[in-house]
Amino acid sequence: DNVDAQIFFLARLPRTLAGALVGAALASAGVVLQALLRNPLATPFTLGVSAGASLGATLVITLGVPLALAGIPAIPLASLAGSLGAVSVVYGLARFRHNGLSTSVLLLAGVTLNSVFSAIIMFVQYLADYTQSFQAIRYLMGNLDVSSYSPILWALPLLVTAAAVFAWLPRSLNLLTMGADGAAARGVDVLRTQRAAFLSASLATGAAVSLGGPIGFVGIIVPHMVRLLVGSDHRLVLPASACFGAAF
């Protein structure tokens, strides 16, 4: 019955926790993908994960699916499903006719899929009515309109799994930035590291987008700001980016 407690625990705290988790996840994923692709412009949204998540949420909004399915909010659930679908397609294309995981094909497949999904999203919005288009645009702008703990709890297992892999990656990422051959010569299982980096970053991104929508700039801004402060050692950059991303 305490109004102050309701405001704090039900209105403010879920949104704050969601913001911290989304920022930490996107910043960490940005660090991992920039090291994996050896490209300073790589972001968690380069590989089509965000577009897949956005497409899933847009379809749910346009088709008028009930607000919750079996107690799970429908939009975050569809967003998560779309992101995992995009990850599967990009990973399959990167492995197609390659013995390992081709990072160049990974990048090209992600950018292409991003463009295709973005076009489909615009077509779906064209077919939708005004109210549905307004809801879809609100989601696509990115927001932290989280009013309960349920979406956070459903995203938490993916975030915890990604964080566990992130904790294992820094040494391998340091060596991987020298190139695949140089890393392999120093004892790194390159294919396993690439798989772990790609899948963990994709899981973190999918979970973050399901909570906050496609808030893309965090994943490219925060890692570069952190590198200016702590250097390029991923043993420092990765945890510092997670903390700075959460605060940001």
Structural class: mainly alpha
What is the CA-based Rg, rounded? 18 Å
Q: Average the pLDDT over all residues and give the rounded result.
A: 87
Give the percentage of residues in beta strands.
under 5%
State the low-pLDDT regions, or none: none
Helix segment count? 11
Distance between the termini: 33 Å
Helix content: over 70%
**How is the largest sheet built, in terms of strand order?**
1-2
Major sheet, described briefly?
2 strands, antiparallel
SSE ordering: HHEEHHHHHHHHH
Based on CA inertia axes, which overall geometry fits? globular
Instruction: Please count the beta strands (DSSP E, at least 2 residues each).
Output: 2
Summarize the topology.
Elements: H1 3-37, H2 49-63, E1 68-69, E2 72-73, H3 74-95, H4 103-127, H5 130-141, H6 150-168, H7 170-176, H8 180-185, H9 190-212, H10 218-230, H11 234-247
Antiparallel strand pairs: 1-2
Helix pairs in contact: 1-6, 1-9, 1-10, 1-11, 2-3, 2-4, 2-5, 2-9, 3-4, 3-9, 6-9, 7-11, 10-11
